[in-house]
Amino acid sequence: MRADHPHRKPQRLFDSFEPYDQTRLELKIGAAPAEMSGKTSGKTSGKTPDRILTLLRSAPNLAIPDIAAVLGKTERTVERVIRDLKSTGRLERAGSARGGQWIVRESD
Question: Among 18, 24, 51, 68, which is 20 to 30 Å from 83 by CA?
């Protein structure tokens, strides 16, 4: 919905959605997301994997949509980086998809 819609004010991420919200998670890591062109170079600078590992060390129960929101990346990007981290043994998932947690392995 557009912000200039005459009948509704835009919701902000930190607005209350009572009675549904029971917890409040505030993580401030990195800068705000930039405009996305939809194009990728196919290369990674290594910053996103390191940022994901840092985030998951401090909050191992985060879901992929939460990680993406905090880092200002798409869910698809986070899924790809997590897949790469898992294949190199730097990241593991313990437990179920909903109730599990991430385990960050230190590199040798």
Answer: 24
Beta bridge pairs of residue 104: 91
What residues have CB less than 8 Å from 81, skipping those under 6 apart? 44, 48, 49, 52
Residue by residue, DSSP assigns 74-86 as -HHHHHHHHHHHH
How far apart CA 17 and CA 7 sit, in angstroms, is 18
Return the domain boundaries, the chain: 47-104
Which regions in the chain score pLDDT beneath 70?
A: 1-46, 107-108
- Which of 68, 32, 87 is closest to 105 using CA atoms? 87
What is the CATH number assigned to the segment(s) 47-104?
1.10.10.10
Give φ, ψ of 61 to 5 degrees.
-95, 5
